[in-house]
Amino acid sequence: MTLRQWLEQAGHALQGTEAPRRAAELLLCSVLNITRVALMTHPERELPPDAGERLAGLLKRRLAGEPVAYLLGRREFYGRSFDVDPSTLIPRPESECLVDEALARLPERAVHFADLGTGSGCLAVTLAAERPLWRGVAVDISEHALHMARRNAERLGAADRLTFVLADFTLPAFLPDFPPDSPDANHAGLDLVISNPPYVSEAEYAALDPGVRDYEPKTALLSGPAGLEHARAVVELAWRILRPGGLVLMEHGAAQGEAARALCAPRRWREVRTLRDLAGLDRCLAAIHR
To answer: pTM for the whole thing?
Structure first.
């Protein structure tokens, strides 16, 4: 069987799933360890005999609803490949607006930030990789997710600029302290708090696509009856740990723009606004600490 023939069969088998042809190409490239360009250039190449069984297993898992990112063990975010597994939320293009805004609003000089609910580390690692002078604290309640974030930071050359903290940032007493031996230990206030917290309501969670609900971590998605419990905690903590003039950037659901802005009391925050993603949907809260 040629690669072209396998792609045609796999694409047909995956009909009814998201982007079936693209998924088949990604799986084939991963198993054969080739680029998509190589696949498109030599489609008549014979499929190696030892690849058939592995591909059949991956197709079976994909047909059962498992996300392609988990099958591959990676997902691209902001031009970099991040390792992912079921302990972490899969990075999504919508979250890139947080990075765009942070890089546009803050200078290239030394910046200190906290990433609350870091997951795979896509936000913290991207910021540290894009801005070598920036230093950050990456916080997550999941030990497995934090391990993945640290692994991504090491692989992408940003580990020396990040501190990883296993903690629940929603607890009232939480403060993202730098370690005592850190050069940033005496820093009085952060320049940036960035977060993609859980923001799915209980009703929304029940109605989620099974590929999300049944595979991605519930703790990274669900946030109480209205989907705002973690958002409220992010805004409250940001007010406590940002310096005056510091910036908070937080992702939220497409229908939560007004509710997220309402969390920012005028006596504490200025320039409160909602950022839209590439699809034109309300996606991120931005506000300045008074």
So the answer is: 0.92
Average pLDDT, the chain: 93
Place of tokens 């905690």: 233
pLDDT of 165 > 90? The answer is yes
Report yes or no: 201 and 223 within 8 Å, Cβ to Cβ: yes
Cβ–Cβ under 8 Å, residues 102 and 247: yes
> Smallest Cα–Cα separation from 142: which of 166, 123, 163, 120?
166
